[in-house]
Amino acid sequence: MKVLIVYAHNEPSSLTSSLKNVSLEVLQATGHESLVSDLYAQGFHANAEKYDFTTLTGQHFNYANEQKNASLHGWSFSPDITSEMQKVQDSELVIFHFPVWWFSAPAILKGWFDRVLAMGVAWDTNNTYQNGYFRGKNALVVATAGSPESDFQPLGLHKATLKQMLHPILHGTLASCGFQVIEPYLAHNAHDMSPDDLHNTIEGYREYLSRSLEQPTFFVQYQ
Q1: What share of the chain is helix, strand, coil (3-state, %, to 5)?
Q2: What torsion do the CA atoms of 150, 107, 183, 151 make, to the nearest 10 degrees?
Q3: Is the pTM of this model over 0.85?
Q4: What are residue 86's phi and psi, to 5 degrees?
Q5: What residues pair up with 127 in beta bridges, in sequence order?
Q6: How confident is the model at residue 183, as a pLDDT?
Q7: Distance between CA 202 and CA 97 in Å, rounded?
Q8: How would you class 173 by CB atoms within 10 Å of its CB: exposed for 0-12, middle for 13-18, buried for 19 or more?
């Protein structure tokens, strides 16, 4: 199986980086082919702008319409977008590794969503969810949060679980493009883990990913 890892963290010693490395180790050990898009290392641009297209349709700039037009004319997107699109097209599973910032993904990953999951390539007006263009592909979110799990409870500090916080990404972004979304692996208290907790979190993910590659449990699945 071909697997794309989309990695959005700027610190190699982070828990997010360690979990990304586990993904690579598990995929190699189980004979899967992997490729990493390291967004910070690549200098990936988060802003969706006119320079994302090699041609424009008119004076009034509408980003979604330009995406649709570019998808119809030989993928006339900028090279950095085209490269990422091709990686997704070639993959059967996409794993997203990122820290949770303001209850969502970092801006660089949000920009990847905006620019790469383009109208006409990942979705269209009448092609979302079970009709999304990436149906048949799986997606897995592996996210880390600084606060303890007790804060992420309906009666806790944040009044919702971390998975509930990430619903716009899991369902509104990935599932709407047709991905079959595997239950996410979420690590809490990343800033204050004891050595034992850190070990257990990393090894827990190793076991979870190995199991998910064989028999995934889906958060959202469209046939």
Answers
A1: 45, 20, 40
A2: 10
A3: yes
A4: -65, -35
A5: 124
A6: 97
A7: 13
A8: buried
Non-local (6+) Cβ contacts of 172 within 8 A are none
> Is it the case that residue 142 has pLDDT exceeding 60?
yes
Return the structure tokens found at 96.
């997203």
Q: Which helix (H) or strand (E) holds 96?
A: strand 93-99
- Indicate the SS3 state at residue 165: helix
CA distance 25 to 29: 6
Cα–Cα distance measured from residue 194 to residue 132, given in angstroms and rounded to the nearest whole number: 42
The helix/strand/coil state of 6 is: strand
By the 10 Å C-beta count (0-12 exposed, 13-18 middle, 19+ buried), 52 is classed as buried
Q: For all residues of the chain together, what is the average pLDDT?
A: 94
- The secondary structure of 13-58 as a DSSP string is TSHHHHHHHHHHHHHHHTT-EEEEEEHHHHT------GGGBSS---
Q: Distances from the Cα of 199 to the Cαs of 21, 149, 204, in angstroms?
A: 14, 17, 8
Q: What is residue 58's predicted lDDT score, i.e. its pLDDT?
A: 76
Q: What does the DSSP 8-state code read for residue 68?
A: H
CA distance 64 to 120: 9
- CB neighbours of 116 closer than 8 A, spacing ≥ 6? 81, 84, 85, 88, 122
Tell me how far apart the alpha carbons of residues 122 and 78 are, in angstroms, rounded to a whole number.
16
Residue 183 DSSP one-character state: P
Single-letter amino acid code for the residue at 214: E
